[in-house]
Amino acid sequence: MDHKEMLEMLNGVKEGAISPDDALTRLKTAPFEDIGYAKIDNHRGIRQGVPEVIYGMGKTAGQICGIVDRMLENGAKDIIVTRLSEEAAASLEKQCRLEYHPIPKFGIVNRDSVRDKTGSIIVASGGTSDMAVCEEAALTAEALGNQVTRLYDVGVAGLHRLLSHLEILASARVVIAVAGMEGALPSVIGGLVSCPVIAVPTSVGYGANLGGIAALLSMLNSCASGVSVVNIDNGFGAGFLASRINQMEGVK
């Protein structure tokens, strides 16, 4: 249940369309439901506007299916499952309507097909090898109701590729800049746009890249103003934060 659904239910009680007993039944599992291996936060949507997101890595297919099943019983839509293996996705597809993207290992259950998308988020990548992280960010932002434009393989080794998209970059409310190697892309974009830039270091690179630490340190030391940094390979975190910024009231 999210803010809108809760308000509709309360108005229904006020107007007599929903009985207090029925409303109580819908709220009886609040604020969370303990199913043994997980405590499902049924009020996440009320507090944050987004249902609880399931981190799939380290969970069995049965655990993921069990969590999703309980969330569906509580009326959740747009349930995001990150780092979802193909094996777990195959099990999940047998019980519910799953949209699965194998490159980022990203699943969306019970997508709200009529949900409006707003604003303008750009996801830019240094190279094609960063695509899994980019898609995790882009798909997260789209599932949360944002318009997303993808600019892939526009890294600094061929700067003209990025500069050819200046008009698109200028129209963005938020830019997510994803890069491995030396992680220079966010600094370059940060010097070209007037909107917030969310930098995502990836683990892509040769030995001295240190699994993304080199890119992380480069981004943390960016000389461009307005650049913030999330963790290595954390496309989900970047997409979620970009959605928050894009949907802030008063943002034009």
Automatic annotation (TrEMBL):
Coiled coil (residue ranges): none
Superkingdom, taxonomy of origin: Bacteria
InterPro entries: P2CMN_synthase_LarB, PurE_dom
UniProt-recorded Gene Ontology molecular function terms: hydrolase activity
Sequence ranges assigned to domain PurE in this UniProt record: 119-251
Signal peptide: none
Protein name from the UniProt record: PurE domain-containing protein
GO biological process, one term: 'de novo' IMP biosynthetic process
Gene3D superfamilies the UniProt entry points to: 3.40.50.1970
